[in-house]
Amino acid sequence: MIGVLATLAADLSRTKRTRQDNEHNTRRQLYADYLAALARTRNHLRLAARSAHTPPEERARKAIEAFKEGNAYELRYQVAPISSAPVIEASTTAFRALRDLRDLIEEGALHTEPSYLELRDRWEERFAELRTTMRNDLETPPS
Q: What pLDDT digit, counting tens, does each position of 50-69 carry?
């Protein structure tokens, strides 16, 4: 009887550890994909803001397309259900900073304007905070 109970306890422990490992790996991959999507979107926005010889309407279209092609919206909604509150908060803050940058480019701002530089710096700070928050979340042992 003791042997059966010991085997059962070991199996339950192994199953729990496997499930936790799978959840951790899923979260890690989704965080990486989301960060990559944000960075890709930011890069497209940077290119639009640097197109000084392009008409403002075309730059605005490029800024809108950056969000569509970057896939950040979709991944943001995938991150939310599996993340801790600090990750969700940092994700929302970073996403909004990037969206503010897009809106400014849509209004015609170029990469040399003070308003653009201010929002760019805010985005970079929020993106760094998101990376740190995600890293901390992944290092926290499961409960």
A: 988 999 999 999 999 998 88
